[in-house]
């Protein structure tokens, strides 16, 4: 077993502790191990996608973050060939949800996902797909 140390914003830790208690975890370490396993499984799923796929990329971001809107728009313009449409929702005064409908080459879609995830101010980004191959 390795011991690590992490720093978290207070609100994030409070929410994590609330969920741990709700789910009956006996320690933060147990919850963090489960969260890391889930992250690894999601990464494995996405990395194994191949061929043409269809799905959605959902992102939640802080629209007050510096240049976040410009960077998200640039990314979507750079990957326009795999974007069919998008939906923008204002969640509250500072946060937005964007759902991007994607279809096409899985490698391009994964590149778009990674680009969106890397934008400072993006708090959540996930690709959802049930289609691993689009029939001709």
How would you sum up this structure in a few lines?
By secondary structure, this protein is α+β, with helices and mostly antiparallel strands.
Summarize the structure in words:
There is one protein chain. The protein is α+β, with helices and mostly antiparallel strands and 136 residues long. The chain folds into 2 domains: 10-45; 51-131, ACT-like. Chain A, domain 2 (Alpha-Beta Plaits, 2-Layer Sandwich), CATH 3.30.70.1150. Helices cover 43% and strands 29% of the residues. The chain is built from 4 helices and 4 strands. The chain has helices spanning 10-23, 28-48, 68-78, 106-117; strands at 52-62, 83-90, 95-105, 122-131. A 4-stranded antiparallel beta sheet has the order 2-3-1-4, covered by helices on one side. A hairpin with a 4-residue loop joins strand 2 (83-90) and strand 3. The longest helix has 21 residues, at 28-48. It starts with 9 loop residues before the first helix and ends in a 5-residue tail after the last strand.
Present the secondary structure layout.
Elements (H helix, E strand, L loop, with lengths): L9 H14 L4 H21 L3 E11 L5 H11 L4 E8 L4 E11 H12 L4 E10 L5
Antiparallel strand pairs: 1-3, 1-4, 2-3
Key phrases:
single chain; 136 residues; alpha+beta; 4 helices; 4 strands
What distance lies between the first and last C-alpha atoms, to the nearest angstrom?
Answer: 49 Å
Question: What's the total count of β strands?
Answer: 4
The fraction of residues assigned to DSSP E strands is 25-35%
Give the neighbour order of strands across the main sheet: 2-3-1-4
Instruction: Label the overall shape.
Output: globular
**Mean pLDDT value:** 92
Radius of gyration over C-alpha positions, nearest whole angstrom: 17 Å
**Fourth CATH level, the homologous superfamily of the largest domain:** ACT-like. Chain A, domain 2
At the first level of CATH, the class of the largest domain is Alpha Beta
Q: What ranges have pLDDT less than 50 throughout 5 or more consecutive residues?
A: none
Number of domains: 2
CATH topology of the largest domain, what is it called? Alpha-Beta Plaits
């Amino acid at each position: 077993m390795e011991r690590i140390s992490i720093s978290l914003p207070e609100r994030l830790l409070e929410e994590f502790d609330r969920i741990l208690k709700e789910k009956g975890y006996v320690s933060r370490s147990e919850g963090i191990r489960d969260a890391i396993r889930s992250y690894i499984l999601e990464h494995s799923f996405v990395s194994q996608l191949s061929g043409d796929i269809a799905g959605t990329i959902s992102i939640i971001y802080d629209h007050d973050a510096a240049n976040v809107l410009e960077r998200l728009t640039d990314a979507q313009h750079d990957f326009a060939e795999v974007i069919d449409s998008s939906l923008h929702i204002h969640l509250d005064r500072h946060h937005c949800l964007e759902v991007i409908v994607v279809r096409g080459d899985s490698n391009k879609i994964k590149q778009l996902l990674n680009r969106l995830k890397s934008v400072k101010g993006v708090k959540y980004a996930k690709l959802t797909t049930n289609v691993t191959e689009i029939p001709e």
